[in-house]
Design brief:
Layout lengths: L4 E8 L3 E10 L2 E11 L3 E2 L2 E2 L2 H19 L1 E3 L1 E6 L5 E10 L9 H12 L7 E13 L2 E4 L9 E12 H13 L3 E7 H9 L2 H6 L1 E6 L4 E7 L2 E8 L3 H12 L3 H11 L12 E4 L8 E4 H25 L9 E4 L8 H9 L3 E3 L13 H12 L2 H11 L12 E3 L43
Parallel strand pairs: 1-7, 7-12, 13-18, 18-19
Antiparallel strand pairs: 1-2, 2-3, 4-5, 6-20, 8-11, 9-10, 9-11, 13-14, 14-15, 16-17
Helix pairs in contact: 1-3, 2-11, 4-10, 6-7, 6-8, 8-9
The structure holds adenosine-5'-triphosphate and magnesium ion.
InterPro entries: ATPase_NBD (IPR043129), Cell_div_FtsA (IPR020823), FtsA/MreB (IPR050696), FtsA_C (IPR021873), SHS2_FtsA (IPR003494)
GO biological process, one term: cell division
Protein name: Cell division protein FtsA
Amino acid sequence: MAKTGMYVGLDIGTTSVKVVVAEYIEGQMNIIGVGNAKSEGINRGIVIDIDKTVQAIQRAVAQAEEKAGIQIRNVCVGLPANLLEVEDCQGMIAVNNESKEITDEDVRNVASAALVRSVPPERQIITILPQDFTVDGFEGIKDPRGMIGVRLEMNASIFTGPKTVIHNVRKCVEQAGLFISEMIITPLALTSSILSDGEQDFGTTVIDIGGGQTTVAVMHDKQLKFTYVNQEGGEFVTKDISTVLNTSFKNAEALKINYGDAYPERTSTSEEFPVDVIGQSEPVNVDERYLSEIIEARIEQIFVKAKEALDEIEALELPGGIVLSGGAASLPGVVELAQEIFDVNVKLHVPNHMGLRNPVFTNVISILEYAAELGDVYQLTKSAVTGETPQVEQSSQAYTREPAYEQPAPTYEPEEPAYQEPNDPEPSEGFGDKVKNFFSNIFE
Ligand SMILES: Nc1ncnc2c1ncn2[C@@H]1O[C@H](COP(=O)(O)OP(=O)(O)OP(=O)(O)O)[C@@H](O)[C@H]1O
Ligand SMILES: [Mg+2]
């Protein structure tokens, strides 16, 4: 079914809140607005201050509204994978209808039957994702509506998460004046959106290295089988640099972006750059290799922990290898280091949308794309979770367009960049052309 309409994705990250507005015209996606505002109130992927988070969401939304020339009302928001659990479930019902033709209500009822289970008081069901239906023993049906049968069965995955995480995300978005049309489990969106059909089928691991946490997700047989969260990310690398070199967090971030490399072998001890050290009146020269070793130590630790988790479920045997995403994965040398530690094929995913060719946007684009793909059957099974009447005719796209729809092609130039362009420490001679990080240009 070709999608048409407007979708807004919202990714509430530890480092920044991202918003992307896309318009679908008969299945063709056009990004028409982007917002990226520095986060406050999020720590290690989790909301710790509702008011500050609300303000960050509002800033990001305002940027995107300005770019897109619309007023955003409904958003599809990503949910982090912290303590997420995935479980297979089955439901079975006798078809109600006299004519035995399967209706929307039967689909909702079979989902309700699959949902019967006890959930601990601190957890809640986020969503139920139908895999396939069986009608009178005939398996593998994706949409049984309109078919005739007396017995309807459904295989599905149930996702549960901590009530507090889900509540806080909801509260922040609603308090920012927005309506949540879909809550999307971020690693589910990510794996579904960035992996090819074959990768999803044969099995692939996605590692999203954000600012405050790293999320590992394994997709196999086109289902999200496993997630693991390590609450360490790129901000920890910056903190390490700041602590070891005795320089401010802001300087450390600039050093990381401008000279950082996670793979010391290919760096040199003779390339030096000046660092403003606290308590010293003159900048101190530090060499590229030393900086690289600081970075490597943290990223290696993140990867080793991820490897332990992946080894337990033998996910590294899967033929798809590893796909990296997230802001911290764009640091040079991360792919090489991952390759060495995991000993499988590793590649970095960079979104292929004009103005968004930066791994920090991978999640928000995936959230949006995933939400846009959700069909009627999903809406019906979801309504068994929420108890709300499904809006199978209208998708997740209420919005108000302010001006007449004649927008210039979107360009991405946030007024308040999420990351202050770092105070570029004066590079030593001959080093300028070694400023490696092209992704940072996006904030210029
Ligand atoms: N070009 C770059 N080179 C190195 N690191 C970068 C670059 N761009 C962004 N980062 C790092 O990526 C991190 C932010 O990534 P991202 O935006 O994916 O995180 P987030 O989604 O806000 O956080 P999380 O997912 O952990 O909640 C920061 O630590 C930042 O320093
Ligand atoms: Mg993130």
